[in-house]
Amino acid sequence: MDLVQWFAAPLQNEFMVKAILVSALVGVVCSALSCYMTLKGWALMGDAVSHAVMPGVVIAYVLNIPLAIGAFVFGVGSVIAIGFIKSKTRVKEDTVIGLVFTGFFALGLVLVSKVKSSIDLTHILFGNVLGISDSDIMQTLIISVITLVTLAILRKDLILFCFDSTHARSIGINTVFLYYVLLSLLSLTAVAGLQTVGIILVVAMLVTPGATAYLLSDRFDHMMLIAMASGVFSSVMGTYISYHIDGSTGGCIVVLQTALFIVAMIFAPKHGLLARAKNSRTVGE
Amino acid sequence: MDAVGIDIENLPVAYNGKVALHHASLHLTAGTICGLVGMNGAGKSTLFKAMMGFVRPASGRILINKLPIRSVQKQNLVAYVPQSEEVDWNFPVSVHDVVMMGRYGYMNLLRIPRSSDKSAVRQGLERVEMWQMRDRQIGELSGGQKKRTFFARALAQQGKILLLDEPFAGVDVKTDRMMIDLLITLRQAGQIILISTHDLASITRFCDQVVLINRSILAHGPTSEVFTEENLSRTFGGSVSDFSSAKECVLNKTQTFPHPSLPSGEGTRF
User: Fold this and answer.
1) Fold for the domain defined by A15-278
2) Cβ–Cβ of A171/B105 closer than 8 Å?
3) Contact: B76, A39; criterion CB under 8 Å
4) ipTM for the assembly
């Protein structure tokens, strides 16, 4: 099979065209947010929120309302719960995060098992982009627009918030608002990511592209573009590969993302392992 | 008309449920360089936080230029230069980006710089001799250049009150002199500069006033009057090594400010 065939053949199927477009879109959106997650040091928070949205997603299914609403309530709710427990008890923050998100996630599992009807647990856990419905596509589209527009409008404030929230506050910028904006976007994109790679791997979409780009650039805007490019590349190629090898789509996407990270880690011109080794040799001489 | 001044009255500040500062009262007028001296945890940063509006005092009041803190923030009156340890130097921003952040308070929602913002940034960078370095990522700078970058941000912000947290830690002689010259110029222009530091030598070099803090304000007044052995021993409590260094500093303070010829690094630091 030649290369053109490899790319063209899957597109004969309508579901593949949809899958590729949706995963590309999700790749762009999650990657954009991942820049802020990595710079703010919110990887653990991303992990927590993306798992904690689970009961919200199930309840939204049952009530037949947009998943994003349920996810939003439980995503933000989990962080409020974390903040509350941390401030009222002597338990350390990472412990609180660990217990809150697993508690929410477990609640979600129980709910799924009891309301069997139309929900397929494996679709939530591992994604189902090859079988994505039109209403889910519409929902992903809406989430994407909201997220990208918000990030575009608040771009500079969010950069400042991640970099130096002390200064931001001292000049009257509402950092509490920015905190909840970032958190809300995290909950929303968790739903978008859930469609493609599933709830378990969605944190990879929200962290890895940003981390890869962080190694390759010293400017925020470049970092954003590199993250988006690597996110889209991984999503599209991952979907293709999963079609050809008949394997897990989410798995293929995230394996590709991780592979890109490893390449960047080794070969990045300035911050890669090879460059660092070379630099320390030069310094040593 | 231009009523530059800080009025803090009877301010108890609680932080994380504990009272960090009891009954602090402090009045500073235009054209002052004031050193803030105390051990770690004595309440120096709490006082800074109160002036930036981060901790809400339970009672008492704090006014800057006769304005409540909310208006102070909106008018960009207080510029803060953080300790180097507080900054993420790997963050993907350039020197120019950082200094431009000092102007955000003057910009619209999208933070699109106008020509006045650009010229303020340029002036700030030129005053600390960092204009040539403006495109560098901040992690590529030396310790002194890093400090000067944040100093330029404070200059670009054009606040009337300048809060400096350990400004002389880890800087080179050139930066040290440049910053002292600039501080003296700013004082002449009527600004109030508050310097939180462990470096007692730098206080005697150019601070006109000193505030000694140990959970409350122990003493406040002209450097020559306040910097006594007795006051410093109260400030540093039972800490013997701190106190002996402090004492040395008192004995050596034959010359007070301004004395920019003394290179930093020879001062007493703990």
Assistant:
1) ABC transporter involved in vitamin B12 uptake, BtuC (1.10.3470)
2) yes
3) no
4) 0.90
